[in-house]
Design goal:
Elements (H helix, E strand, L loop, with lengths): L11 E3 L12 E6 L6 E11 L3 E5 L2 E2 L2 E2 L7 E6 L7 E15 L2 E7 L5 E4 L5 E3 L3 E8 L10 E2 L4 E9 L2 E6 L8 E8 L2 E17 L2 E12 L2 H28 L3
Antiparallel strand pairs: 1-10, 2-3, 2-7, 3-4, 4-9, 5-6, 7-8, 8-9, 8-10, 11-14, 12-13, 12-14, 12-16, 14-15, 15-18, 16-17, 17-18
């Protein structure tokens, strides 16, 4: 898994009004980069005492509440549907833990700043998922032409997945810049997302020829993107858990 690149310095900015975006009920992604709880998690803000404290719910995984420790360093990111491509981020250490409105929470000092960053890359994991798609032509910017769909279903599968797109493997020829309408399932959730081919790699195995394509999601609801990111985080969490289990069981 590769971490998100939150951009070069020119793509970052901090303004006092960004603190106003912190609201009760805000869904956030948090990252822990070391220690027993190393990984990425989804949670929500449960209470704010402005300029003093911010309360977040302990994440739940496999039906169990994770109980983070005081002084754990966290990196917190959140997005909004009406601001595609933008990520807001801040960091802090857990000051204490407790219970708020019958929920187990951890408490941070209210951040002194929130930074807005253009999301350039997304967390990516290797995963094989069946991927069905149709070619389509988007409408002209002037609005004179309607979107046209080629009603021929083609199939492939992903080699990796992120909140920004996939690496697609398929025997069919596609061109860089071409648009496709994709259908794929993640767990029990089905998705239909518009995409664009941004990279073409030809390959082969024996006498069979196939292609790999770098595909980005071009027209995607941010709630769907967050759902995909949550799926990616869950895969990575299980991989980390498995590696820890192997390390623990290894002969000493």
């Amino acid at each position: 898994m590769t971490a998100e690149n939150y951009g070069a310095q020119p793509a970052m900015e901090t303004k006092p009004e960004y603190l106003e975006k912190l609201k009760v009920g805000l869904q956030v992604e948090l990252s822990i980069t070391g220690g027993l709880f190393r990984g990425n998690y989804l949670t929500a803000v449960t209470k704010i005492i402005k300029d003093k404290e911010i309360y977040l719910e302990m994440p739940i995984q496999d039906g169990k509440i994770l109980k983070f420790w005081p002084q754990t360093m966290l990196y917190i990111h959140f997005t909004f549907e009406n601001e595609p491509g933008a990520v807001y981020t801040f960091s802090g250490r857990i000051q204490k833990t407790g219970t708020e409105a019958k929920k187990e929470v951890f408490i941070l000092n209210f951040p002194s700043k929130v930074t807005r960053v253009q999301r350039r890359n997304f967390v990516r994991v290797d995963v094989i998922i069946p991927f069905n798609y149709f070619s389509y032509k988007p409408p002209a910017p002037e609005g004179e032409e309607k979107e046209t769909l080629v009603p021929v279903l083609k199939r492939g599968y992903s080699l990796d997945l992120s909140g920004g797109g996939i690496m697609l493997r398929t025997p069919y020829v596609l061109e860089k810049g071409q648009f496709i309408l994709s259908d794929f399932d993640l767990g029990e959730n089905a998705y239909r997302v518009r995409c664009q081919i941004v990279r073409v790699i030809q390959s082969s195995r024996g006498r069979k020829r196939y292609f790999k394509y770098g595909v980005i999601f071009t027209d995607i609801n941010e709630s769907i993107r967050r759902s995909i990111i949550g799926f990616v985080f869950e895969i990575e969490r299980k991989k980390i858990q498995k590696m820890k289990s192997r390390a623990f069981d290894a002969p000493r």
